[in-house]
Amino acid sequence: MKTGQRPTSNSQRPTDLISERSCWELGVGRWQLIAIVMLAAMAATSCGKKGPPLPPIIHIPASVDQVTTRRAGNDVLVTMTVPAENIDKTKPADLAKIDVYAYTGTTPPPRARFLEVSTLVGSVPVLPPPPPDNTSKKKTRDEKKPAQPPAPKPATAQPAPRPGADAIQGGMVTIRERLTPEALVVAQPVPAEPTSSRSRRPASVPITAPVKEGPLRRFYVAIPFSPRGRPGPPGMFAEIPLTPLPDPPLDVTASIAADGVSLSWEPSGGLIGFLLERALPIESSPIDEPPDTALEPTLASSDLPAGPTLYNVYREVEPLPDAPPSPAPEAHEEMLPINPAPLGVLTFSDPVSAFDGRRRCYTVRAVRGTGPTAVESDASSPACATPSDLPPAAPVGVSTEVMPGAITISWEPNTEADVAGYVVLRGEAGDATLTPLSGSVIAEPQYVDREVRPGVRYVYAVQAIDTHLPTPNTSAESARVEETAR
């Protein structure tokens, strides 16, 4: 052993192996370095250690604020937009269904207490959103790997629709409520909030809130629910007036026209209602005596919404015989009129682009009021028609012009919009049946027959052909004309 060298042993601690020189070079003392090593060891042993469990994040769907209503007869259509986020703005919404509640009264109850006095009128299941597509993220990681055939997706990649689910997040859905006699009367008033011994409210507070007078209305509120049954906040109110309905139109008739179906009907309320609605104002009497109001026909006592009586037309088309069965139409599609805006006349024309022989039935409803106060009558008796493509009319004005070796046949063009062309028929004098001159349809109302023999007398007629599929319709023969070739 050299002089000045410290003895070493196998039991020497790791901290003793740190030389004073190395500590001096690091600029720290030995015990400071020992403390650093111990802290590093503690940090290494504590990595990955689980702490106390955190509470789960509870998502509550946002309120249904976009709700509109429409009354047609005793049917009320409530259309709403399904929320696509939660109240904390996270997406997608933790949403399983939407319940719609209704209350009848002159004023709406407080939103926070709506469920205490309202009635559940409809429930709409909501489909869960599809899982996110992570193929774009995996693409960058798999670009360096050799190309392999894509693996088939598992059967559970898309969520299976639940029975009756017809709503998706962010979409629109409509429910229909059939108004019963109970829905047309005032519901129970909202009970007053319970008082406690600590409340300073005097004992003279009534048990129920007073009912204010006014027009009777029906209020609707939609409430979303999470899959665990947690309700979201109630949305905005939507309402309809419960005024009496106008009378449905009478004597609706449907007739087949050249381009579709023509409808006509009698006014709502008959002739008397038509005249009363358009009655001229009563002139003031030149005498100072008050008029006899008992004999004045007036609608002042009517509770119908103000404004003229307008009309909406509805259509139901028979399905094609060989078409697969289609799902039942949605409530908002079934109750959608075919006229873009209510009609102020008593006629309507429904154009039919393809005459496929399907039966079409029409009903008409009277409309009073505009906007949220509009109401429609019950449907009229249906009027049905089966439009079929009629053949075009026979051409008229057929004439001939003879020249050496040819005969020119001319006629007036048809006025039907679906006429594709014409066929010229020819025969000799005395022939009962004429045959076509060309194998194709002639587009112009003129044809030159150059296959004639001099001295022979020919008979000509013209037929019009339309564009009906699969078999075009052919008109009757025009009046026959005769000409002798030169």
Estimate the strand proportion. Answer: 25-35%
Question: Helices and strands, in N-to-C order?
Answer: HHEEEHEHEEEEEHEHEEEEEEEEEEE
- How far apart, in Å, are the first and last alpha carbons? 148 Å
Q: How would you name the CATH homologous superfamily of the domain at 60-129 and 163-191 and 211-242?
A: Immunoglobulins
CATH topology of the domain at 60-129 and 163-191 and 211-242: Immunoglobulin-like
What class, by secondary structure content? mainly beta
The helix content is under 10%
The CATH architecture term of the domain at 60-129 and 163-191 and 211-242 is: Sandwich
Mean pLDDT: 77
Number of DSSP-assigned strands: 21
CATH class term of the domain at 60-129 and 163-191 and 211-242: Mainly Beta
Total helices: the number is 6
Main beta sheet: 7 strands, mixed
Shape: elongated
The whole-angstrom Rg is 43 Å
Uncertain parts: 6-28, 152-165, 201-211, 279-283, 290-301
Compile the SSE list and pairings.
Layout: H1 20-26, H2 30-46, E1 67-72, E2 75-81, E3 97-105, H3 114-117, E4 119-125, H4 135-142, E5 172-178, E6 217-225, E7 238-241, E8 250-256, E9 260-266, H5 270-277, E10 310-317, H6 331-334, E11 347-351, E12 360-368, E13 375-376, E14 383-385, E15 399-403, E16 406-410, E17 419-428, E18 435-436, E19 446-449, E20 457-466, E21 481-484
Parallel strand pairs: 1-13
Antiparallel strand pairs: 1-2, 2-5, 3-4, 3-6, 6-7, 8-9, 9-11, 10-12, 12-13, 12-14, 15-16, 16-19, 17-18, 17-20, 20-21
